[in-house]
Amino acid sequence: MPRIPLTWLAEHTELTAGASAQQVATDLSRVGLEEEALFGAQVTGPLVVGRVLELVKEPQKNGKTINWVRVDVGPEHNEALDNPKDPQPGEERPSRGIICGAHNFEGGDLVVVSLPGTVLPGDFAIAARKTYGHTSDGMICSGDELGLGEDPAGEDGIIVLGRGHAEGLTGEPGDDAIALLGLADEVVEINVTPDRGYCFSMRGVAREYSHATGADYTDPVSTVEIPQADGAGVAVQLRDEAPLNGVPGCSRFVALEVRGVDPEAQTPRWMARRLTLAGMRPISLIVDVTNYVMLDLGQPLHAYDADKVVAPIVVRRARAGEKLTTLDDVTRPLDPEDLLITDTDGERLLGIAGVMGGESTEVSASTENIVLEAATFHPISIARSARRHRLPSEASKRFERGVDPQLPLVAAYRAAQLIVEHGGGEIAASVTDEGSAPAPAAAISLPLGAAERVVGIAYTAEQVRGSLEKIGCLVEDGTEGTLAVTPPSWRPDLSLREDLIEEIARLVGYATIPSILPTAPGGRGLTRAQRARRAANRALAEAGLVEVSSYPFVGEGIFDALRYGADDARRGAVRLVNPLADDEPLLRSALLQTLLPVARRNLGRGEEAVAIFQLGTTSLSRGEGASAPVPAPAQRPSDAELEAILDALPLQTRSLAAVVGGASGPASWQGEVAPWGWADAFELARRTAAAVGAQVEVRQVEQAPFHPGRAGELRVLGADGESTVIGHAGELHPGVVKEFGLPARTSALELDLEALIAAAPAVVVAAPVPTYPLAKEDFAFVVDQDVPASAVEAAIVVGIGDLAESVHLFDVFTGEQIGEGKKSLAFAVRLRSSDGTLTAEQIGEARSRCIAAVDAAVGGVLRA
């Protein structure tokens, strides 16, 4: 995110008097530039200019020599008398005594002194302290200690103001050094959206600040003097033989030479300070100037050592097998889509265009002659290269968002002039400007009433025209009440009528758009399905389970891990075109496919038992032949097209799944608790069904990933009287338990929650409170092994009729006493009448009807 020093911003626009970083951030937020962070002054307290009166070198026992320095820091800060332990040499002149270990200054020099009470960068507080036998009453500061970088005067870095090492700085003892060195500068860090790349420059942010406050704005481009060129300079050839979508990777390339630069010239302190505040590290004059111009104007630049460049410079795509060692000392294999800067007629690689340069022609400490490159690159090409090589450089950030194509020549001359001003040398009379700036964008037709129609506010014609002209658009009268609007070169994001309307709303002010809340419709708020889903979740949570959430992505190996058959429909998962992970390219077709890995992860982190559930979506593909038509964007799709699109969508439903295994609760003084089992899975299914107002019937089946003998399918009775399978529950297969590292005999359930809710009656009839006592009867029927208990239960209900209040299976028995292929099912039946207390005759008749009904329905015989 760009950092904006306020003093730099003030060079291009007039800041309001006494504007703070907070106020500037507030102003910028009104035009859509959100505050990311604020940075106050890095140095506070009494930091002053001091003059060295006397310097005494004192060798120490450790071999080090320190300086005992008397410094005049002005009448306001000098001590009237010396410390008794530190008698002042020479005449009685007010001053301060300071210990200093640097040796690049001498008597008479002007230096920067931090007095007690000063706080330096890094929250380093200065105080008087006893050291080397003296009381050091402050500190003589280096550039590093003030956050300015090393001082050019010497390796120790003490800032010497009085001998010309910091150009343009003057002062007298006692003067405020914070203001002198610009250390009170505040910085605003802003968040720039991808469509507003022009705000990655002081030029762009200053323009936006002007829009927000109405302050005067001076375009820094207008202050750059561009001389008449005397012919072409370095030969440049644009040879993009594989343009992306027909658009060349480089449309314009400017090369400008500067010769005779002093290689020892230092970056001026004000420029180094601004770069530091903007978040960049000063390196050398030439590199710093290119970075400074990039931050100021928004045009990335690159400097080559001219003595190492062998013309012509060729811009081309990479060839198969080519490699480049970039400035970060990493050798990178190149992709044929990478756009390169080369020389020696295209044979030697100089850098990845718009991303990072190479080692072969980089500027060094001995460079005297340079070639400045300023180019216009295709945003998509640069973005792909930056991501491919994981090189999000400052240049690529700007190029991939779109750089003003009119800037290259201006930026090259601005950088050259700064280099000559501070490092000497001469700008070549010739300049290379290969290619051309892209043609201006076509005018956009904007009806005067379009903004009011979209935003809902009556904008005047003056507001519409004025807003567009303010951002740099050329606005001309069109036909029939329209405007012909041509966006400026630095706004490639303005391509549609709606883009212009957004700018009008932004500049007139979002605050002028009223907030109108929609009227809430009458009713209970939640739909029946929403209430049912919440009730199902609550039922499982009340049963002691924890709700979790898992990503819906799975790999193909999950089907084998869950022991699906080769023809299992759940193998028909939807494949993603652009998956988040290559090893998980499919959408889950069953909820247990992602819930079981969650259980494994929890157990792997120290849990000893698992009791989790999830409500989520599952998807099934309609097959390879299902493809949706792509309707034309100019008009609404036809009904047939919409129906074809819907028919091609995957089959999706909301499912509910749970996994339980291990101890069903914490141990206590009573001993270990019972583990979760297959019966608990069925009970959880019944709880869920009861919560939504439905009833489930269980029938034993074999279904992966469940145990073949301890699992069953869950059925509900539809409105047509037919039962439908909505899910399965039971103990997991031992192989699945082992695959996922689950506790022994872990059980699970999964059901189609939407189908369950649909099967529940829409209207719930309240049951009357019984006023007569109930009668209890137990029945044990011997039936064939394959007869489901639910069929026997249904026969009992039919036989007894309205007197049957509840029927509950409490025992299943098999053995020699029953006979081979037989089982005994014992039911507890509760009888009650709403008309009166049941008599013995009524109970006996009900019992007879029950026995007859079971015999007729399933061939069951009452066990003796």
UniProtKB/TrEMBL annotation:
Tagged with keyword Disulfide bond: no
Gene Ontology CC terms, in alphabetical order: phenylalanine-tRNA ligase complex
Subcellular location: Cytoplasm
Catalytic activity as recorded in UniProt: tRNA(Phe) + L-phenylalanine + ATP = L-phenylalanyl-tRNA(Phe) + AMP + diphosphate + H(+)
Superkingdom per UniProt: Bacteria
Cofactor note: Binds 2 magnesium ions per tetramer.
B5 domain segment(s): 439-515
InterPro entries: aa-tRNA-synth_II/BPL/LPL, B3/B4_tRNA-bd, DNA-bd_dom_put_sf, Fdx_antiC-bd, Fdx_antiC-bd_sf, NA-bd_OB-fold, Phe-tRNA-ligase_IIc_bsu, Phe-tRNA-ligase_IIc_bsu_bact
Required co-factors: Mg(2+)
GO MF: ATP binding; magnesium ion binding; phenylalanine-tRNA ligase activity; tRNA binding
Domain TRNA-binding: 41-172
SMART domains (UniProt xref): B3_4, B5, FDX-ACB
Biased composition (Basic and acidic residues): 77-95
CDD domains: PheRS_beta_core, tRNA_bind_bactPheRS
Residues of the FDX-ACB domain: 770-863
Enzyme nomenclature, EC number: 6.1.1.20
Binding site for Mg(2+): 493, 499, 502-503
Family label: Belongs to the phenylalanyl-tRNA synthetase beta subunit family. Type 1 subfamily.
Protein name: Phenylalanine--tRNA ligase beta subunit
Organism: Brachybacterium ginsengisoli
Gene: pheT
